[in-house]
Amino acid sequence: MKSFEYARAETRLDATTDARNGAAIIAGGTNLLDLMKLEVMTPQSIVDINRLDLGTIDVTEEGGLRIGALVTNSDLAGHSTVKRDYEVLSRALLAGASAQLRNKATTGGNLLQRTRCGYFYDTAMPCNKRAPGTGCQAKEGFNRSLAVLGTSEHCIASHPSDMAVAMMALNAIVEVEGHDGTSRQIALNDLYCLPGTTPDIETTLQPGDLITAVRLPKPVEASQIYRKVRDRSSYAFALVSIAALVKVEDGKISTAALAFGGLAPKPWRNSEIEAELMGKAPSNALFDRAADILLTDAQGYGENDFKIPLARRTLKAVLSTLTEVSQ
Amino acid sequence: MTLKTPLHVNGEERMLVADSRTSLLDALRHHLGLTGTKKGCDHGQCGACTVIVNGRRINSCLTLACMHDGDEITTIEGLGTPEAMSALQSAFVRHDGFQCGYCTAGQICSATAMLEEAKAGWPSNVSETLEGDVTLSDSEISERMSGNLCRCSAYPGIVNAIREAAEGEHDEKL
């Protein structure tokens, strides 16, 4: 690991000032320290935000939840309101990582975790995300776990989070404080960038920005599922995952919110799928059309070709379960 | 950058003087002489370095020692001694919950905290419902311990030991 200066933030301003001057913000540290050990990330200074007052979960005026950025994945998964009203989020968190990691990993850090693409992690390899301009070896290489949607010729990395997929389906909003002390809100979908020609730029955050909380709108009355398909039954990243909230009234779908993990460089949501489902009677043919919309632009790169039919089958299975249509 | 960090480990106050890069794991092993905690992968994947901080099990390899002043840290040395083993330690011996023993300190620290999580009603990925009391079936134990790998694959003994400790908790003095 490269040497770095360590500072502990006593105030949010300490954190945003240090971050603006190039410090890496450390909270749980489970991903940052891993990457620093491998020298994939080499910050000259880090600022520790763990003593800031960002660790509470509060009910908002609109009847939703405000989740502090330092709330651990364990505490969020086990929170009574989350378990009752946002089951898909509890389930996504419990499907991710191990108990030890969930005890350290935070809400803000989970959103910002980096891809687990093997080329990004291997400093002996070219990687446009880690070292812009060096090329993407993953396209013709080991890409079993990588993306089939939203990729570019420069990068096919997939986003690893489960939590963020559930939050995407729940229309989460990220609360950010800038270095000038102003607070702003970003829809989670707008936090992430697609790789395009600049895969090293992953979010719309600016230097000096600090995620302070994630806000969830008031709960939606719907059946909720987080379905994760992976190589092992525990402690593995998603090959395909789906967070879904669906309600059927009078034989027709009246609520549909779907987000996808393991398939794209960001938690993936496509409102056209939901528009197709809304107001229709659930059927296998309808679910196939939903999968057609999801996968229209899907592109496999060899090892990960299987994700395309797997995403279709997983989506159909999830929709069948939630609408009680037998396949 | 060298930092001075007071650490509370197993009920004792210890002063750490170390480079900012020092992980909690290396601080325990190399600076404080507490070599019971083991380094496996050093990347949070194997669980051999599991210790308990403020009642929560964590991977000590993925956290900096300088971040832990004021925290209560418990390592395997703080759970029991050969003469006075904890319920889990003696259960691991009785059930052959190991072969080479390298992962055992991490397994036992992890299981110690896991039993508290279960008592507090924390659900897991295999729990049918998110609410209510937790019954530690074999699949619940396996899921909750999935962050601790055993290269010798002593898993049946590990699960038996944990089940016995969970069931015998009321009879056996910790």
Automatic annotation (TrEMBL), chain A:
The protein's name in its UniProt record: FAD-binding PCMH-type domain-containing protein
InterPro entries on file: CO_DH_flav_C (IPR005107), CO_DH_flav_C_dom_sf (IPR036683), Diverse_Substr_Oxidored (IPR051312), FAD-bd_PCMH (IPR016166), FAD-bd_PCMH-like_sf (IPR036318), FAD-bd_PCMH_sub1 (IPR016167), FAD-bd_PCMH_sub2 (IPR016169), Mopterin_DH_FAD-bd (IPR002346)
GO molecular function, one term: oxidoreductase activity
Species annotation: marine sediment metagenome
Domain FAD-binding PCMH-type, first and last residues per copy: 1-221
Residue ranges that the Swiss-Prot or TrEMBL entry lists as coiled coil: none
Source organism phylogeny: unclassified sequences, metagenomes, ecological metagenomes
TrEMBL record, chain B:
Pfam families from the UniProt entry: Fer2, Fer2_2
A molecular-function term among this protein's GO annotations: metal ion binding
Protein name: 2Fe-2S ferredoxin-type domain-containing protein
Gene3D superfamilies assigned to the protein according to its UniProt record, in alphabetical order: 3.10.20.30, [2Fe-2S]-binding domain
InterPro entries xrefs: 2Fe-2S-bd, 2Fe-2S-bd_dom_sf, 2Fe-2S_ferredoxin-like_sf, 2Fe-2S_ferredoxin-type, 2Fe2S_fd_BS, Aldehyde_Oxdr_Iron-Sulfur, Beta-grasp_dom_sf
Keywords tagged on the record: 2Fe-2S, Iron, Iron-sulfur, Metal-binding, Oxidoreductase
PANTHER family: OXIDOREDUCTASE, IRON-SULPHUR BINDING SUBUNIT-RELATED-RELATED (PTHR45331)
2Fe-2S ferredoxin-type domain mapped to chain residues: 3-79
